[in-house]
Amino acid sequence: METPHPDRPLDVIAVVPPGLEEASAIELAALGAEAVQPLRRAVACRTDLAGFYRLHLQARLPFRFLRELARFPCRGREDLHAGVQRSADWQHWLPPERSFKVEASGSAPGLSHSHYSALQVKNALVDLQRQHWGQRSSIDLDDPDLVLHLHLGTPRGGGGPWGAAAEAVLSLDGGGASLHRRGYRAAMGLAPLKENLAAGLIALTGWDGSVPLADPLCGSGTLLIEAACMALGRSAGLEGGGANRPGRARSFALQRWPDFDPILWQQEVEAATALARDGLADGRPLAPIVGMEAEAAVLEQARANAAAAGVGPWLDLRQGDCRNFEPPSGAAGLLVCNPPYGERLGDGEDLEALYSDLGRMAKERCSGWTLWLLSGNPELTGALRMKASRRIPVSNGGIDCRWLKYELR
Ligand SMILES: C[S@@+](CC[C@H](N)C(=O)[O-])C[C@H]1O[C@@H](n2cnc3c(N)ncnc32)[C@H](O)[C@@H]1O
Q1: Closest to 42 in 3D by CA, of 70, 18, 71, 72
Q2: Is 293's C-beta closer than 6 angstroms to any atom of ligand 1?
Q3: How far is the CA of 340 from the centre of ligand 1 (A)?
Q4: Which of 188, 218, 375 to mutate to test the pocket of ligand 1 (most atoms within 8 A of CB)?
């Protein structure tokens, strides 16, 4: 049985929102990951323990990072049982006083239901524990010490060292829970975007904080808050982005692993904290960030969220109708928005009129600006009466959407 050594390169899979694979690959490479390869809804990369900590503290786009323990051919239940038992030094990783849970995805011969596959992994581990200790770990679905992930499928590139047989990849989930929950969003408006999707949409616009950014239908403010955090170096894995209580990291499952290195972790926490600043990296001030929201209560949530994220002072959030939006004077900037599109919100409202008025407002008042709009309904975007210059497919909570770019002349 092999123990993953802290200095050994770690093979990691970042699970990312569909459509953000390339943007996530760029982000991971910028954080020092190597051998970065976009996959479907995921990015493969290699890093070391310090890099793995850095990814958890600073990456904004992934849902989770999976650290590979073992990869083995899997022709059925018996291969899975034996492969799991050989995957790691379980005496080190999983003594019986530690709780765990198993998540599974994909399929292999005789293992087509994820729940059943996860159960097989659990059985393999508790069988081994009973042999060693005469006792077994308990399963904790809410706050386990170890979150294991099994993926079954065809090897990458169609064939691994063992040919085209299905393979199993057993990994540890470093976050334990989805990383999109940054912790600043106690309050959520109607149909909010997930924080990592909002960060990814902003990354796709290429906005760097030097020109104004406005969301005339800002809801609970997720696009603007993520944008401000990016521009002001507020790390996603720190409470308040590192601004309010410097150096307080959120809690991650990897801190309970037996190879957790507190000194290395503290170095990475300090490095992530040191990125927080009050202006752009080159010393220029952050350009205006403006939000408008029709519902007073939702606007209050946006303000509370911005304050909790440590970027409140940089956001100008106002109550009002997007039809009355006035862009800040000066340089042309970016309009971003995620208007209601009927799937979850606004059914029965005259959404076509809203889109038509939004298009008119943008053309009349924001000439020279760029509009990025998240659409889940092509009929409604037709009412804008503009031709998109880019259409990027993304998925918003399972709804097939397009992140549409319009040049406002
Ligand atoms: C899909 S939500 C936006 C969610 C936001 N991106 C977030 O993450 O919280 C659309 C928002 O537009 C607001 N809205 C609808 N009609 C509006 C209008 N005419 N002017 C301004 N806001 C409006 C709704 O109240 C809602 O909060």
Answers
A1: 18
A2: yes
A3: 6
A4: 218
